[in-house]
Amino acid sequence: MLTERDYGVVFEASPDAMLIVDSKGTIQDLNPQAVAMFGWSREELDGSPVERLVPEASRGRHERHRRHYGEAPRARPMGQGLELLALRRDGATIPVEISLSPGRLASGQEHVICTVRDITGWKRMRQLSRAMVTAVENERKRLSRELHDEFLQYLVALKIRVKLLASEPVEKDREQARAQIAGEIDDAMRGVKRMVRGLLPPELEHRRLSSALASAFRDIGEVHGFTVHASLDRVDEELDAAAALALYRIVQEAVTNAERHARVTEATVTVRSVGGAVIAEIRDEGCGFEFDGHTGLTSMHERAALVGGGITVDTAPGKGTTIRVTVPAVGPVDERGLDRW
């Protein structure tokens, strides 16, 4: 049987932060993990109301919940409790999950053992998982649009021309119709090849981001008459496969948005290795837009976040748009700093 001293050892050694709180909501004891989590010393928290660890805006509500819990205390296991915010000494808040276990001390005093777990990492992983699902869904939507807007139109046109060819009595006209059908089949094949390259550019399989981007820019020029002025450094050794694909997709989407919405016929793209990161900048002199932090750029932000990167946007109505994507480098980097930007 465990002694009181044994329980004390368990309390001190627990990997989770633990607090002992009496029926009045006063902290009676805390373990080293609680000291590390909240930033206050034992002396500062001992004897303090537990609401001291709750953000000010939530203290009244927390006190009401605590009093209601005290009327009929019961064990509440981790994972079945409320997800709350805890307040650190430095004023920062952290998401936490709390389990409660009521009981009595050896003196007979009622108390509750509060086990507090920082779930910042778990929440981050959940957000990234959602971002991955969203990115996949957006990719499916993009492919669906391309199939509908381009490939399906070719097939409909071919069906009509084949019907007309069957009823064409003049041999010369039939030959012209056959030649036109052959040309449209070639166009459809080129469209399919572009879509296949869009799914996974073969250049990226050989770690050639600059080649993959150059190919994408040629495609958008041939199909839409949109010119991309590109200055692309060889950064392949500084990006892993996931980061290279994310950067490719982000630049591709930014250029496509410029072609569709900026009301211009050209844009400029630069890719550089700068101070431990690979930075891509997509700039157009178009109509710009009222930027609220997320409009039209959600998928780009999500892709960047998945590889530890970030995006900044500089735009305003009538002022053009500049999108800068920063992705951490994993190989040799340019140590000359940010002066080139």
Description:
- With 341 residues, the chain is α+β, with helices and mostly antiparallel strands.
- 47% of the residues lie in helices and 21% in strands.
- A hairpin with a 4-residue loop joins strand 1 and strand 2.
- It starts with a helix and ends in a 13-residue tail after the last strand.
- The strands form two sheets. It has a five-stranded antiparallel β-sheet with strand order 2-1-5-4-3. It has a five-stranded mixed β-sheet with strand order 6-7-8-10-9, covered by helices on one side.
- The longest helix has 47 residues, at 120-166.
SSE topology string: HEEHHHEEEHHHHEHEEHEE
Work out the number of β strands: 10
* β-sheet strand percentage: 15-25%
Number of helices: 10
Query: Radius of gyration in whole Å, from Cα?
Result: 30 Å
Distance between the termini: 68 Å
Q: What class would the helix/strand composition place it in?
A: alpha+beta
Helix and strand topology:
Blueprint: H1 4-13, E1 17-22, E2 27-30, H2 32-38, H3 42-45, H4 59-71, E3 83-87, E4 93-104, E5 110-118, H5 120-166, H6 171-199, H7 202-205, H8 209-224, E6 227-232, H9 241-261, E7 266-274, E8 277-284, H10 298-306, E9 310-315, E10 321-328
Helix pairs in contact: 5-6, 5-10, 8-9, 9-10
Sum up the structure in keywords.
single chain, 341 residues, alpha+beta, five-stranded antiparallel beta sheet, five-stranded mixed beta sheet, 10 strands, elongated, disordered C terminus
